[in-house]
UniProtKB/TrEMBL annotation:
Protein name: DNA mismatch repair protein MutS
UniProt feature, compositional bias: Pro residues: 829-839
Gene from which this protein is expressed: mutS
Pfam families, per database record: MutS_I, MutS_II, MutS_III, MutS_IV, MutS_V
Binding-site residues, ATP: 622-629
Amino acid sequence: MMAQYLEIKGQYPDALLFYRMGDFYEMFFDDAVDAAGALDIALTKRGKHLGEDIPMCGVPVHSAEGYLLTLIRKGFRVAVCEQMEDPVEAKKRGSKSVVKRDVVRLVTPGTLTEESLLDARRHNFLAAYAEVRDEGALAWVDISTGAFRVMPCTRSRLSPELARIGPREVLLSEAVEADLAELVTDLGATPTPLSRGSFDSTSGEKRLTALFQVGTLEAFGSFTRPETAALGAIVDYLDITQKGKLPLLRPPARESASQSVQIDAATRRNLELTHALAGGRDGSLLHCIDRTVTAGGARLLERRLSSPSRDLATIHARHEAVAFCLDDRTLADALREDLRRVPDIDRALSRLALDRGGPRDLAAIRNGLTQALAIAERLENRDLPALFETARHDLTGHDTLHDTLDQALVAEPPLLVRDGGFIAEGYDGELDEARTLRDEGRSVIAGMQADYAAETGIASLKIKHNNVLGYFIECTATHADKMLALSDRFIHRQTTANAVRFTTVDLSEMETKILNASGRAGEIEKRLYDSLRSQITDHAAALNTLARAVAEIDLATALADLAAAESWTRPKVDDSRAFHVENGRHPVVERALRAQGGDPFIANDADLSGDGESAAIWLLTGPNMAGKSTFLRQNALIALLAQMGSYVPAKAAHIGLVSQLFSRVGASDDLARGRSTFMVEMVETAAILNQADDRALVILDEIGRGTATYDGLSIAWATLEHLHDVNRCRALFATHYHELTQLADRLSGVENATVAVKEWEGDVIFLHEVRKGAADRSYGVQVARLAGLPPAVVDRARDVLAQLEEGAREGKSGAKMLLDDLPLFSAAPPAPPPQPKQGPSPLEQRLAEIHPDDLSPRDALDLLYQLKSLSGET
């Protein structure tokens, strides 16, 4: 046995080998040590190898999926090795014969299909990047849904495109793996190297034509050599991992970078589109706006949010669909109730195609078809927008398959085929007979006994059973002659002292049927399952189309529900360079404030429309914590939501098409690559300045803050000029360098704006209102006081700030003033805590005695003089 294990393990050195041993998957040697640590299970030993104990651990087969998920999340790959024959057959070859085993599947992050291993509301993409000479291409597939896409992609575009797609695993040729593995890992995916042969474009074309059973790929589009290489590498890898049992994939669809808004990885992270900076989905924009009720709709929402469209016709069609749902809320609510009962058709179909499904997947297809028909009927005889009309058409035309499944399946089938009982009574006569014999054998025998008694006229005739004769007919010796006279019908078996026993051909056949009824019923159900599974996979393309139609309707009704509940408005999106938002809000922050029961969100306007030709930049000043970053982010999110086809959190919005979205808001060290906070900031800023075109929307926050004051001011100044003169884009530029506000007088496309605050008795009150004009100062000392700095530090900071400002007015340099004027070592010792008051002052006592409602105007005037006198004494 161990020799067999080592032989199979040698074929998969980079994977943990799940070696099937009866009801367990067992692991040995280093695999056992690694798995035991990762799964927190007991590490034991079994036998010896080369004189050393063999480490061993195992997991039950029935709960293996949970362990698989843990291992995959921790970066392992797992080769699943099954028994390929019955142990009884192995013993026929000899008592020491080893059961034949082989790997049936290689489980990797990008090839998961089991429901328990996947997030139903997210895609699980496997990607491949290929290069041929100086051209590159990126392909990606979700084998759990069949989505298969490809696009041209240079190395410089690889990072933002991978960030957009979010694959779990990326295939790389050995030729580029060393250069790109780190980039893939940084984006949270697992890099998997493949041989150069897997990325050969000629071989790739052959694999693709064989998979889709076509003579040429031209029917699906015109693919370049790198695109064919990337697509072919995915098919080759699936053939390796699925052991030749390829999933149902849709024909490859070609995408173009110009179809969607370009958003790089840093911007996605800064804006928290699908994941919050703290990790997880909570706090992200996706989590905030997701009101879909189907798994397919949730996956579509994430795709739309990650890839906002740049096609006006597409955007307008999506807005029309949302408007249709808002105009008829009764219909939309009814549709959402129907949608709640739609299962995940795509993933059920994928599991059935890979033969990893079960009766519940058959039922999922049936239930999906039932609900699709109900939804289509609700949409009949209505004036539908184009998106809904297309969807309604795609929901119909499956009557034959639906009727077959409806007749064949019980309402609530079991999980596994071997459990049986999922085929409905009356669907198959042979199965009904086998079940009757299995479940009602005694009544069948009783019926035969009655028939035989009537036939022979012997009322006392019985059918009995024992372990020697099986079923037999017994009568008393008195009636033996009558039975023997019918010897052509009743066959003599045995004579005892008091009775004679007979059988018939019918009884022998029935005995065989009863004894084999359970196994026969299971075999018939398995055959019927395979037949139904085959009928479903034959309709795979139409079912995928139906699933997309369901997802479209779900997303449109969900966005309408969101817009109605949150008072969002339909944006005007056109081909201009306009950017005007009235009373815009940040959806995530607004939701958080509402959940906390705090102050309402303060809405603000933004207008970056300019004159339509030059840059339109708002230079935003104001203190920390006043809401500058929130204002920047909310306008970026409004543009993104508008172009993905959603309504937006504003009173009104006019968005000229945005081609690129760039955000540099906040930064942190990247110690693994030796980058300081300032270096990260500069890298992200460089990417913006080098790539942004005149249709881009850029939001920049505190450029230059990570270095010396004059260095930072210089960098921020030059950056702003470059955005205005070279990139000529729309931008929101927040800064603490008040010197930059002078650029509004010199650059025609720059306008000053500030976040308003109010100072009261040394404290600063944040009004969160964005107004035209420039801030006079940053209020940093006041913010420091609010943060809890010791009073002595705050007081000292005020002194230093006052002298610095005075020196600046007198034209002194900061360094000279610090040396000449500031008492550098005069930091005051900590002040003693304030003594509590002994009691109310005379003024407070008098105020407590006053009853305003009892005062005449003359009394009020006299009282005012009294209070003034008391305040002087105090």
